Amino acid sequence: EPIQSIPEELQELSGNNLSGAEEYYEFCDVDSLTMDLGLCDLHIYQHPNDHIAIAADNTKNYFRCSQEDHTLILEDIRPASAIGSNMNQALILDLYLPELQYQKISLDLGVGDITLVRLSVDELNIDSGTGDISIGTLTCQELDVDTGAGEFTADFIQAFESADIAIGAGSITVSKYAGNALNLDCAVGNAE
User: Fold this and answer.
1) What is the DSSP letter of 108?
2) Which residues contact 159 (CB under 8 A, 6 or more apart)?
3) Each residue's pLDDT tens digit, 64-96
């Protein structure tokens, strides 16, 4: 079964906005990402290029991205009154990352879904209020996931040091795990 990767229409990212997105950005020399998003449908892909490409829709002038040294900072500053729980108001964000080993990725998401196709990172921290998290292949040293409500599914996780996945209400499914300590905590629901 082929690994899900970049949608066919985005195979040739080369500095031009071929995504058709409202907003499109590229960044180079990034080894860490910090994301603070209120209401978002987030997809993280890998692509064969040397730059990070960001395609954003439904931004409503609330989306900001900047680079400080080697850290890329993505934030959605829409006020709580604009968020609600209506996904029609959600930022739609597609990240295309080079096939590199990242140092740290920190993601704070209020409401929304996260799809991570393939990633290699030393430390991955995900803190989300409500929404589903779907991971294809993740290789890391440390994984820390804390979600209020939703489903967490992963095809393959390799965590050399530890993986802690906690969900208040929902389910956790990890199909294959390799590495040291795996801690699953599902207060209401099931973990397997």
Assistant:
1) E
2) 138, 140, 141, 142, 143, 177, 178, 179, 180, 182
3) 999 999 999 999 987 766 666 567 788 999 999
